[in-house]
Design goal:
alpha/beta, Arc Repressor Mutant, subunit A, 6-stranded mixed β-sheet, two-stranded antiparallel ribbon, 23 helices, 44% helix
Length: 648
């Protein structure tokens, strides 16, 4: 029965209540009926429980479920495995969970496996439904698409490097919250994402009016500081000819710019940097810390020079980590997109039949941006990222779980040493606290050590077997050595059961060594002299490449080239072919001149070609000519009478 409903309250009390009642009967010599009445139990059930307790039998309360395939401990391990897969962003589909359940049942040689499992090689949908009901920590969720670069880059190494450099900069310049700024861009389109509306229940499809199918993008640039203040924004329009009329309805003191794409480029970012300096007014005594990502418009020599001249210290985030480290992304842009969608929907209702254009965007942003960019959201964004107040330990180990799959040692490092360190660390963290093995009595058994090692976290531990020699050196004299059993028994199979042995956690292969050096951006203080010199060097290399490419384009077809043997042979063949072509041309010209001197007569009437003004036709067989009027038969493929009679 799939949906069974209990009709009585029998066996609804827990075993703890029976333990208290049995203690009352055995220790205080209370009668069974009085104890059962006091604890609201059935006196017969209590009598049976006390009788089992006196005879040291196994105690159990409630109805037994004999058809369960897995025990509670085994289902708990499957549940933990599924949660770990979800945390590392490799969650399993319901069908994959059912296949995994069948494989686990085969591994532990479960007794109550239905025949349909063996036929389909997977568990049934009813088992999956009941499994989810028995484990309320699990639920079916629609995951958010996360790029591999974000999951890979946000790891402990990159985050610790960022906070180390942030701490150095804070200690060097003693920045206050009002002098710590963050700059970032976001896109605003003319097509809003409709929010939930009230609609008829049961209707399959519900629609909402939008401006168009695909919108035009306008880039919005914002700057905020840790004290909750902000700088007027900037709009980048996809227009080559920009005028200030575009932002006449925008937020106060906002500015605008235009280019062919509407994206931020080096030219527009320098313009916003001048706008930023105008409002912030950094000085030599009060410099400003500017946190920004590694976009190509931010990381270039002209921007760094302007920032250094105006006492702005630029610190870049690690690549692909802005979703957790950038205050604007964490605290402001999420609510802003929500308010923006509502404001755009209201604009569509107030302007029925009108299409939203990029010139209406500044007015819409003016109404929605202050709702999201309030001091509370700004300060909470800086606090959640650990930038202010400075907290390098703001992120937990679970936040770095997605990087487990690609968290690999560098090719130059010794992988065996890293594996040994992981094994030793997991061993020392999961074993009981033992100060010394020399002058103490070893009360812990090997089985307890094995069970403690089985409880290790599969993500952080790589220890899969225990060597016998690991414990023989630590055991005191007189203690029997550990002798492994020759083969695994059924009890050991249940104890060693782990879904990760059937379906291991995904792990990326070792990194490949490449001869080509790749320049990858990293977290750095861009205004420091070494980073500035490196950017200048990159800029000069780009200029040299462009000059060489222009010179090669201009110099094509000029100058002498070194001739190889293959090239010479090809040129000789070309010369011979040209000579043959010229000979053929001469023959054709000679034949044309001879034909001009010859006299042609009509095959039928004998009239000459010179004295005739009529149209002529040539025989396809003998190549002789005749008047069209004199020719008989097919005029397209004409055959004269002489040739026709020869064929007969």
């Amino acid at each position: 029965m799939r949906n069974y409903k209990r009709k009585t309250e029998r066996a609804s009390q827990s075993q703890d209540v029976y333990e208290l009642a049995s203690a009352e009967v055995l220790e205080n010599k209370t009668s069974v009926r009085k104890a059962a009445q006091h604890f609201n139990l059935c006196h017969v059930s209590l009598y049976r429980y006390v009788k089992k307790k006196k005879s040291d039998k196994s105690l159990s309360v409630g109805y037994v479920k004999p058809r369960l395939v897995f025990k509670e401990e085994e289902e708990a391990k499957i549940c933990e495995y599924l949660l770990t897969c979800s945390n590392i962003y490799f969650g399993l589909l319901p069908l994959e969970v059912r296949k995994l359940a069948y494989q686990c049942a085969v591994m532990i040689e479960a007794k109550n496996v239905p025949p349909s499992w063996s036929e389909n090689e997977s568990a049934g949908p009813d088992w999956f439904k009941n499994f989810m009901a028995r484990n309320p920590r699990l639920s079916l969720r629609t995951p958010e698409a996360t790029s591999l670069s974000r999951a890979t880059s946000f790891n402990k190494t990159n985050v610790q490097d960022f906070f180390r450099k942030l701490t150095e900069v804070m200690d060097r310049y003693k920045f206050t919250p009002s002098r710590i700024y963050n700059i970032d861009e976001t896109g605003v389109t003319t097509v809003q994402k409709p929010k939930k509306i009230v609609a008829p229940k049961g209707q399959k499809q519900v629609g909402a009016i939008t401006s168009a199918e695909r919108g035009t993008l306008v880039t919005l640039v914002c700057a905020i500081n840790a004290s909750g203040n902000s700088v007027p924004p900037m709009f980048v329009f996809p227009r080559l000819r920009y005028t200030d009329i575009f932002v006449r309805c925008g937020p106060p003191d906002c500015i605008g710019a235009g280019n062919s794409s509407g994206w931020m480029t080096e030219k527009e970012f320098i313009l916003f940097l001048d706008h930023f300096i105008k409002f912030v007014k950094p000085s030599e005594n009060e410099p400003v810390l500017l946190l920004l990502d590694n976009h190509h418009s931010h990381v270039n020599i002209s921007v760094v020079k302007k920032a250094k001249e105006n006492h702005i210290i630029m610190l870049s985030f690690p690549p692909h980590c802005s979703h957790n480290l950038q205050p604007l992304d964490v605290g402001v842009y999420g609510p802003f997109k929500n308010y923006l969608s509502r404001t755009q929907t209201a604009w569509m209702h107030n302007n029925p039949g009108k299409t939203m254009t990029i010139y209406d965007i500044p007015g819409i942003v003016k109404d929605s941006l202050p709702l999201a960019m309030n001091p509370s959201n700004i300060m909470s964004g800086f606090k959640a990222t650990g930038i202010w107040p400075l907290n390098a330990d703001i992120f937990k180990d679970s936040d770095f779980a997605p990087s487990y799959v690609t968290d690999r040692p560098n090719p130059a490092s010794n992988e065996s040493e890293t594996d040994m360190n992981i094994t030793v660390s997991s061993l020392t963290t999961n074993l009981p606290n033992i100060d010394s093995f020399d002058n103490c009595s070893l009360d812990i058994s090997v089985s307890e050590i094995i069970s403690s090692m089985e409880n290790c976290d599969p993500v952080t531990s790589n220890l899969t077997r225990i060597d016998n020699t690991l414990f023989t050196t630590a055991l005191p004299e007189g203690q029997p050595e550990f002798e492994p059993t020759p083969g695994p028994s059924g009890l050991q199979k249940q104890n060693d059961f782990s879904p990760s042995k059937i379906r291991p956690y995904p792990k990326a292969p070792p990194r490949k060594l490449t001869n080509r050096p790749q320049r990858k951006r990293k977290c750095c203080v861009l205004t420091d002299t070494p980073e500035k010199d490196e950017l200048e060097k990159e800029h000069e290399e780009k200029l040299n490449k462009t000059k060489k490419s222009e010179e090669t384009k201009k110099g094509k077809g000029k100058g002498k080239r070194t001739m190889t043997k293959d090239r010479r042979e090809k040129d000789k063949i070309k010369i011979v072919k040209r000579q043959e072509i010229e000979k053929v041309k001469k023959k054709v010209l000679n034949s044309d001149s001879e034909s001009e001197t010859e006299e042609w007569f009509c095959l039928a009437c004998g009239e000459t070609y010179e004295n005739s003004n009529e149209e002529w036709i040539q025989c396809i067989m003998c190549k002789m000519w005749a008047h069209v009027k004199c020719a008989t038969g097919n005029k397209i493929s004409f055959v004269c009478l002489n040739c026709d009679s020869d064929e007969d």
